Task: structure prediction
Amino acid sequence: MDFLKDDVKRSVLLLIVAGASLVVSFFWGSEFIVDPAWIAIILCGAPILWDAITGLLIRHDIKADVLVAIAIVAAVSLQEWFAAGEVALIMEIGGFLEDFSAAKANKGIEALQSMSPKTGRVVGGDDVKDVPVDEIQVGQTVRVLPGEAVPVDGRIVIGETSIDQSVITGESMPVDKVVGDKVFSGTINQMGTFDMEVEKTAEDSSFQKMVGMVSSIDAEKTRMVRIADRWATYLVAIVMVLAVVTYLLTEDIYRAVTVCIVFCPCAFILATPTAVVAAIGNLTKHGVLVRDGDTLERMSEVDTIAFDKTGTITEGRPQVKSMESVTDEGELIRIVASAESGSEHPLANAFVQYADGKGIRHARPDSFRMTVGRGIEAVVDGKKVLIGNSKLMEESGVTIPGDSVRTSEELYAEGCTVVFIAVDGDYSGYVSFSDSIRQTSRDTVSGLSSEGVKSILLTGDNDRAAAHMAAEAGIEDYRAECRPETKVEAIEELQSAEHKVCMVGDGVNDAPALKKAWVGVAMGTTGSDIAADASDIVLVKDGLDSLPHLIGLSKKMMKKVRFNIGFSLTWNFMAVALSVVAILGPVTGALVHNFGSVLVVVNSALLLIYSRKV
Result:
C-alpha cells in the first residue's frame, strides 16, 4: 500500500469511519437521538451533492453524481437514514477503487520520481558547485560520483564507469561507459567518477520525458467514456420518468425512491475508465508507456504492424559478420584493430570490439589519417595499413582479387558493408559488417501472428537485403528502398484497404509514418526524440518482446469494457424491475445496485495481473 497517494489514504480513513457509523446505525440506530448514519451521509454524501449541484448550475452537465444525489435526497426525505448513508458509502467505495487502480498504474512513475536527482555538480575551472538540476544549462560540465544518479542527459568527456540503466532501458546488467558515450538522467553511476558535457536540460531530459508521458495519462479520454458521459444525461431523464410512472401506478413513494436508487448508473460510468487505468498500470510494469486510453482502444483494433529495420528489428549498431584473410588471420586482426583504434567511426569501434572478443591484444597506431568517403591510412609497427572501400584501394594501386570482388558484391546485396585491407601495398583481405537482428525479433513476430496480427518490414535497403532481413525476423511481407515519404505511402495504402496499421520505429525518418499510422510506437528513450514525440506509445526497454503483450492486453481491456457496460445496464434494469414489484426496498435496492458497481471495478482491476499466455 506504500504506493497510495495521501488523498487515497485519507479516503481509506473516511470509509472506515463512515462504514463504522452505518454498522452502528443498522444495529443500534434507534437508541441515538441522531442516527449515526448521518456521519456517512455527511462524509460521503456531501461531496456528491456538491458536485451534482455545481455540475448542474455552473458546468451545466449531468453525470452520475446527479442520480446519486437524487437517490440520497429521496432517501433522506423518507427518513431512510441508513439507505441514504449506504448509497453515499458504496459510491465512495467505487470511487476509492478507481483511485486505487490509478495509484497502482502510477506506481512505476512514482518510483522514477523518487530517484530523480535534485542537484548536480557543475564544474567551472577548478571549482565544483552543487546547482539545482533545473538550473543546469546545455554545454556545462557536470561531475557525477559513484553511487549518484545522473542529473541530466549528456556525453562523457572525462573518465570511465559502469551505469545502471534499468530505470530507463530495462537492462538488468550495468553498461560500461567511456569517453564519448551518452548517459541519461535518472540512471545510476555504479563505479568511477566521470565528467559529462550537458546535452539537454532537466526539462528536456530522457527521464523527464518519461515522467511527462506517464503523468499525461488520462483514462477518461477514450471514445467510449465520452459516449458514456452523453448517455448519463438521458439516464437521468429515464430514471425520473420511471420513478414518476412507478409512483402513479403503485402510489407507493418507497418504490419510486427505490427506482431512483437502483437506476443510478454508477457501474456504467465506471465501466471504461477503471479498465483503461488498470491496463495502463499493467503496461507500465512491462516498460510500455501509453499516452492515453484512446490509444489502447485503437491498439485493440490493429491487424497489421509495420516495422522499421535499423534500431527496431535490428540492434542499430554494426557488428563484424565475416572476415577474409590471405595472410595469418590473427596477425591481420591485430594490425587492423591497432589501426582502427585511432578512429571513432562505428565500424572501427565494431572491429576493435571484435578483436577484444577474440582476446587479441592491440596498440595505438604510430600514425593515423582518415579520408572521408574512402577509409583510413595508418602505420602499425612500421607497416603501412590501408582500410577502406574499393576506391581507396584503386587510388592506392592495390588490386583486389576477382573472387573477393564477387563475394563483396553478394555481401553488399544482403545489406552488409564491406571494407578491404591492404598491408604495405599488398591486398590482405576484407571485413564485412552488418546490423545484427535483435534476439527478440523473431519471437515477437511469431507472438504477433498468434494474436492475428500481420507483420511487414519497411526498410531503405535494396530488395535483396530487405528480403534477407525479413526472412531473418520471420516477416513474410516487406517493402524495400523506402524513404520517409514512401513509408507513409505504404501505410496509407494499407489503411485505404481498411487495415488498422501500427507503425514501430525509432528514427527521425520514422516520425511521419508514426504520425500517419493508426497507432505509432517508438523504440525506447535511446531512440530519436522526434520519433517519441510523434508516437502514441513508447517501449522503454529497447526490445520488441512487449508488443504481443500490448496487443493481447488491449484486446482483453476492450472485452472487459464491453462486458462491464453490458453487465451494468442489465444489472440496473433488473434492479428497477425488482423495485417496481416491491421485492427491493430503499436499503436492499442500494445494496444490490452498488454491489454491481463494485463488481465492475473489481473485474477491471483484474487487468493489473493480466499475463499473456505464450
Q: What stands out?
A: The radius of gyration is 32 Å.
